[in-house]
Input
Amino acid sequence: MQSYEYYAPRSLPDALEYLAENAKNCRIIAGGTDLIPALRNEDIHPAFLLNIMEIAEVGGISETEQTVRIGAITTFNDLAESGLIRKEFPILSEMALSVGGPQTRNRGTIGGNIASAAPAADGLPVFLSLDAEVELSSRRGKRNLPLNEAIAKAWTPAWGNDELITAIRIKKLPSGTRTAFYKLARRQAMARSRMTISLILRRDPAGIIEELRFVPGSVMPVPRRMEEIEKLLTGKVPTDELLDQAARAVGEEMVKVTGIRWSTGYKKPVLGNLFRIVLSQLITAG
Amino acid sequence: MAKDQDKTILKMTVNGEPVEVAVNPAWTLLRVIREELGLTGTKEGCGIGDCGACTVLLEGKTVNSCLVLALQAEGKEVRTVEGLGTEENLDPLQESFIEYGAVQCGFCTPGMLISARALLDKNPHPTTEEIKVAISGNLCRCTGYVKIIQAIEIVAQEG
Ligand SMILES: Cc1cc2nc3c(=O)[nH]c(=O)nc-3n(C[C@@H](O)[C@@H](O)[C@H](O)COP(=O)(O)OP(=O)(O)OC[C@H]3O[C@@H](n4cnc5c(N)ncnc54)[C@H](O)[C@@H]3O)c2cc1C
Ligand code: FES
Ligand code: FES
Output
């Protein structure tokens, strides 16, 4: 049986104070969908548990002219239901709807999804494809960290244990940008992600790729943009031959990062093909 | 076991009634609903969010109560299957589940009913696809879902 002190403040300064005082033995709980199973399994034994779900400043979705700020305790369901998100980042709405079942979407938060840093997390790769920043707050102050610097290794954030994510910040995409999220899952409704593709694409009127961002999910210990593939295609017209070449290169890149494992024989060609299919659809769509 | 002095008083509303109960901070909402409040309609299946047998409404939204700490429900409204209808006055969904054979062993039924009720409260005339999505977090080992979907569709058509 776990034994910890539980604290659920309504103000952010109170939360940050508590976190700073107890940093070493304190765990943050948001929706609990990752943390409660870990407590139940006795994987972790925190002495203090800080519930951030009652803090208004850590929630809400808002925009400025250039950016959208998504509070860390925004649930997948909040994200899926947001008109602003659907308009600016449909890729996030699609991702949110693909997570778990309704019960998990109603409870699981994006801050928790990022902080857990699970190799199979769905939010993480999509936010990476959007070049998101995490807003970190502590008693020492506030700072913004590019998400691609925020994860040290699988399951391990790179920020201090006295810091918490207060929000995710994303720059709005230039007009004409298209996005796609695709998830290959064993059982669509409930399965934790098996393999995902997140793509951001913009082409000029002549069809030349101006910008491409690509993040595969559930294939690397920590998801990241595949910049080699992005470079291979940027500045060019995506012909069939070029797409074939890129699809093969995706498999090679994956192996470079993960090495050969039991699942490589399956994942290598599948990832490349999926990438090709989703990118082709994005090119021909609308 | 935790000593009594480690307990905290939790105040919440359950099926419309205010309740106050001393809880250990390590307890889940599911445990408090079943063992402290004696509302055993809500079931424990997997205990890790996979089966939906423990589904309740928290502030009107379906959640797996095995993945909510009891203290996270402080000041909130919880609705369980016991709050859907009374024996004399069943929820139309309960009648339909019985009539159309959507109940076999019954273990998944309370969670299914809560998920279906949450759907119909928000969207009284859902499509079959919307019904499937709404109950996609609720596993049933017995019925193969067809009868459950049918039972919900009947209520949606009448409602
Ligand atoms: C049945 C089921 C299905 C699922 N399916 C999917 C799926 O399809 N795709 C997917 O990606 N995920 C899936 N998940 C996992 C997903 O629910 C979690 O990753 C969720 O997003 C974590 O958020 P939370 O609020 O529940 O975090 P919690 O469990 O509360 O916390 C998770 C971790 O993050 C830390 N943390 C939380 N918030 C913050 C913060 N603001 N700042 C710093 N640290 C913080 C906690 O200390 C903890 O270490 C599933 C889970 C279940 C139970
Ligand atoms: S017991 Fe809660 S989801 Fe299975
Ligand atoms: S009726 Fe037995 S699990 Fe659904």
